[in-house]
Amino acid sequence: MTSETILLVFDILGTFAFGLSGALVAIRRQLDLFGILVLAAATGVAGGITRDLLIGATPPAALRDLWPLALAAGSGLVAVFTWAQLERVSRPVMLLDALGLGTFAVAGTQTALDAGLHAPGAVLLGMISAVGGGVLRDMMSAEVPRVLREDIYALAALAGAIVYVGALSLGLPEGAAAAGAVALAVVLRIASVRYGWTLPRAPGS
Amino acid sequence: MTSETILLVFDILGTFAFGLSGALVAIRRQLDLFGILVLAAATGVAGGITRDLLIGATPPAALRDLWPLALAAGSGLVAVFTWAQLERVSRPVMLLDALGLGTFAVAGTQTALDAGLHAPGAVLLGMISAVGGGVLRDMMSAEVPRVLREDIYALAALAGAIVYVGALSLGLPEGAAAAGAVALAVVLRIASVRYGWTLPRAPGS
Amino acid sequence: MTSETILLVFDILGTFAFGLSGALVAIRRQLDLFGILVLAAATGVAGGITRDLLIGATPPAALRDLWPLALAAGSGLVAVFTWAQLERVSRPVMLLDALGLGTFAVAGTQTALDAGLHAPGAVLLGMISAVGGGVLRDMMSAEVPRVLREDIYALAALAGAIVYVGALSLGLPEGAAAAGAVALAVVLRIASVRYGWTLPRAPGS
User: Fold this and answer.
1) Distance of CA A21 to CAs A15, A27, C31, C184, Å?
2) What is the ipTM of this complex?
């Protein structure tokens, strides 16, 4: 796979997963159909728009191309019709969110590298674009963003981005590096929830 | 009217209407005078700044020119002195918000067309800049944005933007197209509130 | 001092002060270690990123250089280890926030002048970048931003920015102008809290 293909595939996966997660939150909060589509669309494209604004790539792909918003809103429609099935899975929002987090971490890092940022800047941009969708979703739902509440969240995105850059610098093929990095971030995130991994709290707090 | 005149007239109307709506929300929440001016200013210019950032027109007009912020803050002062009269109207925040929504939908669409975006991108940008002010106002007031809670909100902005682009492509004069599109969006929004129009909810939610 | 040195010194001070304030809020809200670092980092760099996006300086310094995020996150670590001491000071979040407010108001104004904005635009950008960090911190903590709740907040930043531009136009050396403007903003902010200064509220509210 070339880096463009990776970027596209992971962007599509992440947009769809985040869109579904936004739609499920909207359904739980009893929003109407349009509210569901709006929260799905906003959650799906927010990370990519943030990324594009920060590297100065305006207008962002989510406005220049039609597929990101269409896909994210489409994920809202899918959620409306498969809502009952999705809720049968244990913690569906967390799982979809973890998938979006991992894919966007790698896609954001690759975009930043393509834009000429140095490796640490690319890793940071990868993490920011990975958490951006969830932050917007949670803030629009008047919740404290889970990036703040949960121990291994931005950290999982950061780990994926670092491993991706590290694997590329070791000369691994981009496809393998990307797949491994996404898998690491997703597994790290899900395992931290399942096994209750936490970081130490501030002493005395 | 040329497209620049339309843009300016509707930007002025929208900034003032959104500014008033922000000020009324601030007064209801017992904010002090400066809080009222800040929420009025932020609500009045947020849509335009979002629009300018997304098409890469930096610094945004609201910082390059002085009138947008002065007008939006001025609307806060007007609200302070006419507050009692404004509140006598039934649902004044909703009415002002509807007017801002319609005018910004058309102004945002025209700005995007001037910047060279294709028609669907321009419609999207029109919708985003129309809802941007209200989203910021509601989030700064720690409320779930009404774009999420209310059925015909972003949809009304979307309808206005689509009709504007459609009318232009049919060769209608810009002034007539703009006036018609704004009227449609405003009437659609107000009627949906007055008559309780809703979209279907997700099955089972 | 040249304007670049001033900018750098005040950027460093403001980033650290805002970072500490974000970390203290996170500790009070019982966030875990990573949440503390994230809120410290976001609060520390948000004003600068907003400023850079608005003048079109992309990617923003906080992504291009490494020190802003490292410093802001480092302030989170400092807060974790000195938390008990910091809380012994009366109202530590307010004091640190006031220091960040004053330094960012001047640094933001200088950045805008360097970017060629006219004086009123530079003053506005100074105020926006000064309040940006606190707004993000409060919104991420699901609180109404204090820029809206408190009378002399954005006003203190505005006063500092105006005095800075005024002193420069009178030919004062940049270092003296900057130090005086920061001192004014910080003292104004702290005095307004200590002595309960308020602005008049809307009549009847």
Assistant:
1) 10, 10, 23, 47
2) 0.71
